[in-house]
Amino acid sequence: MRIPRSRSRSRSRSRSKSTLRASTLTAAALLVGTALAGCGSGGPGGSDDGSLDVWVYQDASTKVQREVVKRFNKTSDIKVKLTQVPGEGYSDKMRTSMGTPNAPDVFFNWGGGSISDFVKKDMLLDLDPSMAKDPELKKAFIPTILDAGAIDGKHYGIPMRGMQPVILFYNKDVFEKAGAQPPKSWDDLLTLIDTFKDKGVTPFALASTDAWTELMWVEYLVDRYGGAGVFQKIQSQGMAAWDDPAVLKAAQTVRDLVGRGAFGKNYKSVNYTADGASTLFAKGKAAMHLMGSWEYANQKANQPAFAKSGLGWTTFPAVPGGSGDPKSVVGNPTNYWSVNAKVKGDKQKTAIEFVKFAAKQDYSKDLIANGDVPTTSDATSLLAEHENPDYARFQYDLVKQAPDFTLSWDQALPAKYTPPLHTAVQKLFNGQLSPTGFIDALKGM
Q: What per-residue confidence (pLDDT) applies to 44?
């Protein structure tokens, strides 16, 4: 999951993504049995004391949720009990607990495919009626981010963490030595590939052992060639919809980039989770790096001098003949709070009041203090307090101005599609699949 922004969180992210794949039922059952052994059986969350059981993914950002629970409990008759679930087991615990007496009342998730099965089984509370009663709640968030958590046009999640768009980062020192400027067009990007190859520098760092890093390239290219509607059609119409000209063009462009040497010769053995690609980039062995916004904090943790003065950022350029809006972005819009549909009466009212706290400025200030960029529509005035205001403003404006924010495909689609999707992308980059073979592999998922 694209939660992390530091080294430890990068590793948590990798582990969390793997739990969304085909984890063994035995391991999941053991995990859940152990984790829930101490819970009661008084309805969702297993709370016998009448409290509201809220689950959150445990990482360095959890302190923000701990603080809001303290503030909320000072004014609420029904208290919130926060359960911090270790990242490695979060997805399994969430999936195997929903529908049981031990399910949480409110829980952290990634929207999209992470909750789509729950929605199909009517396990989640539709929050649109609450937004209709409180229009300011809906207005409180950047629309594309709020909508990214919707399923079939209905909102089942309230944004509760920072935004995580995919950004084109560049090494300022490498660019300065080459007398180069960040790319503003696709032709600029292709020219830079040749420029840096001539200098003995890999144009783009790429962690090919972690397929999700390659997926970012395909996502942006499809978006630029065909617009956000291409993937929306795949989500609504199924795997046959991969047979879209924009997907084929994106696959052909990937093969062209590989053939031009855009990713160097050793990308197949480079990783992200152990900082392989990020270190190559920071050390000047690669000029650019397409990565989630957490790359800034990752570099700050491991290459602080580079993060402070050598790290630059820009947008992913438009492509020739593309119909997609170049202001659109891909990535993980944020994470969400969802409410269990089995929570009724006063507890449901309390649950809704609790998730509304994520819209308050105090919550946004806590996120900024943690190094995050809030998803609220009124956060502009708060960004000066961020540890890197320029980066925070760039990221915030990038997302706020985006007409569409496409959720990472391996998060947006049901979990069963993640392994074959990753395999197909890896084979495309490695030359084991042609562009048409790539399309066939996706249609056959």
A: 52
**Per the domain annotation, does 352 fall within a domain?**
yes
Task: Please give the Cα distance from 370 to 67 (Å, whole number).
Answer: 12
Query: CA angle, corner 176, sides to 175 and 181, nearest 5?
Result: 55
With a cut of 60, say whether residue 9 has pLDDT above it.
no
Residue 414's CATH number: 3.40.190.10
Which comes out higher in pLDDT, residue 243 or 87? 243
Number of domains in the chain: 2
Would you say residue 397 lies in a domain? no
| 399, part of any domain | no
Do 105 and 210 reside in the same domain of the chain?
A: no
Indicate the burial class of 265 (C-beta count within 10 angstroms; 0-12, 13-18, 19 or more).
Answer: exposed
Residue 75: other Cβ atoms inside 10 A: 7
- The parent domain of residue 114 ranges over 7-163+333-378
β-pairing verdict for 286-292 and 202-205 = parallel
Residue 384 lies in a domain: no
Do 300 and 439 belong to one domain? yes
What pTM value is reported for the model?
0.86
Residue 294 sits in the same domain as residue 351: no
Name, in order, each residue with C-beta under 8 angstroms of 184's C-beta and a sequence gap of 6 or more: 317
Query: For residues 424 and 239, what is the distance between their CA atoms, to the nearest angstrom?
Result: 13
pLDDT band at 415 (very low <50, low <70, confident <90, very high): confident
